[in-house]
Amino acid sequence: MSPSRDELLWMYENMVTSRRFEEAIAKIYFEGKTPVFNMANGTIPGEMHLSDGQEPVAVGVCAHLKEEDIVTATHRPHHQAIAKGVDLKRMAAEIFGKKTGLSGGRGGHMHIFDPDVNFACSGIIGQGMGPAAGAALSRVLQKKPGVAVAFIGEGAVNQGAFHETMNLAAVWKLPFICVIEDNAWGISVSKRESTAVERNDVRAAAYGVPGHYIEGNDPYKIYDIAGEAIARARAGEGPTLIEVETYRLAGHFMGDAEGYRPEGEKDGLFEADPIPKMRARLIADGDATEAALDEIETKSQARVDEAIAFARESDDPAPEDALTSVFA
Ligand SMILES: Cc1ncc(C[n+]2csc(CCOP(=O)(O)OP(=O)(O)O)c2C)c(N)n1
Fold first, then answer.
1. Strand runs (DSSP E) across the chain, as ranges?
2. Which ligand 1 atom lies nearest to the CA of residue 125?
3. Ligand 1 centroid from CA 10, angstroms
């Protein structure tokens, strides 16, 4: 399955928007956190996990999704949230802890929740598996269309939630896809140290579902395999397990000294940056001109600037609001 020209440009635009958004966040993040680093202080309170480098996974999968489809993501959710169509202004405001945020500023960057486009995420590793399969089950029971995709990191596959959900989703033939983003590291623990199999797609055999491993952080290949899996799910043929080789260009979180990386690892990573690679391929294949891609980049930057300005200018929640929307 190959992406159309329009889909390719959509994928490129969403990759660029995600990258520009995270560049803006990275610039602002340390404001108010110096000279003594206190994670709770500053313009953007809390921890920050950037997804730069991993954008192909989000766009290659989400290019096939409709608004009614469901996505659950992780503590590293910006690229998927953007590709699923989450409101960028309200997402920025949520990250800044503002009243206008998607959850009134209560959740922050690890708890982006936008029911309008069926997107949720969680800072608990593996947590998105059950809710995504549950949402898929609800669509089946209500005879409504829709597939659910749970994005998780390779560090999450040793969680019980992963196995239990894959098993039930397979037994019940749910319209469910698990996409593992293999960025090689779970904080400072390498994949090799946490998992005895080299590739997690082999685990699909344990659940009786198809499994795929996609090499090279390649948005074209991801689009192809994800399209097959999503079409299968829509046709009532059940779940698929996909693992994608991807790269985390930054640290685990902002402030990570990255002492665990072997020397030179990052040099190679930056050469493999998927955004300039896709730009070059779009031009080489005749799918876009330099001018058209420049225009997309200008448009993405403007969207990001507008979202960041909205977040900065929004009010903080009133202290007494902390007692609303909670169980009392
Ligand atoms: C249940 C649970 N255990 C531990 C943690 C602490 N923790 C936060 S991120 C992380 C590593 C996750 O690695 P991976 O799933 O590969 O995702 P990545 O950070 O590479 O995107 C851990 C262990 C957590 N948030 N939840």
1. 70-73, 119-121, 148-153, 176-182, 185-186, 189-190, 211-214, 240-245
2. 26
3. 30
d(CA 135, CA 324): 26
Nearest CA to ligand 1 atom 9: 187
* DSSP characters over 276-295: HHHHHHHHHTTS--HHHHHH
> Which atom of ligand 1 lies nearest, measured to the CA of 154?
16
- For the stretch 109-147, pLDDT in tens is 999 999 999 999 999 999 999 999 999 999 999 999 999
Domains contained in the chain, CATH given: 5-311 (3.40.50.970)
Q: Give how far Cα 116 sits from Cα of 127, 134, 139, 147, 218, Å.
A: 21, 18, 16, 16, 29
**CB–CB of 233/147 below 8 Å?**
yes
Q: How far is the CA of 153 from the centre of ligand 1 (A)?
A: 8
pTM over 0.85: yes
- Ligand 1 pocket at CB < 6 A: 74-76, 123-125, 153-156, 183, 185-187, 252
Q: How far apart are CA 312 and CA 232, in angstroms?
A: 43
Q: How far apart are CA 226 and CA 306, in angstroms?
A: 32
What confidence tens digit (pLDDT) does each residue in 215-251 have? 999 999 999 999 999 999 999 999 999 999 999 999 9
Ligand 1 centroid to residue 53 C-alpha, Å: 18
Closest ligand 1 atom to residue 183 Cα is 20
